[in-house]
Amino acid sequence: MQVILVQNVYRLGTIGEVVDVRSGYARNFLIPRNAAVAATKQNMKMIEDQKADLQRKNEERREAADKLAVKVAESKVILIRQAGEDGRLFGSVAPRDVSRALAEVVKADSEITAIIAKPIKNVGIYSVKIVLHPDVSVQVSVNVARSQAEALSAEQEAAKPKKKDKAEQQAAEELAAAAAPEGTEEVQEKAKKKVRKAKADDSEESDAAE
User: Fold this and answer.
1) Per-10-residue mean pLDDT, the chain, length 210
2) What region does 9 belong to: left with phi over 0, alpha with psi -120 to 50, or beta?
């Protein structure tokens, strides 16, 4: 189905553009939210006549989104879900779950869209992209846990400075020493190899743990 956008729509287009979308998406989402109208000759003329006013309103929405982004960036979302001992959820957390929870946290009346590549299926802390306007997005921390106590514990653990592996620490120190004026290219290269090897070893251990 072809529609004409009367608002800028994330990953779809800008005001006045004619785009092809699924009829269900148009009738159930875009048109009811006044983001688009059917692509008829009459509507095309109407949009062209009102384009300046529509762009002004879009700029007002963008400015409001900029202000909301500051509040969102400082917020944290905690979602309590049932999960097994291995941390796997009995179900999953979808984008709409994050959007609704965040809207409650920041007391937002405007639309908030969470972008998640795939549903969250394990407890943990995730960084989720939040779209407040096609031109305004921000990352927010989403803490999925089995209880408030577990969420707090996970947050405290995440806040701890990450300890470097002993081999990686030693290699980093040697690299820093090699970066000094007296360091030769050969010494620098050896140090770099040690850093790469330490990281590769860590990666292999992580894969084995999974």
Assistant:
1) 90 90 91 90 90 90 91 92 94 92 84 86 94 91 95 87 66 63 57 61 49
2) beta
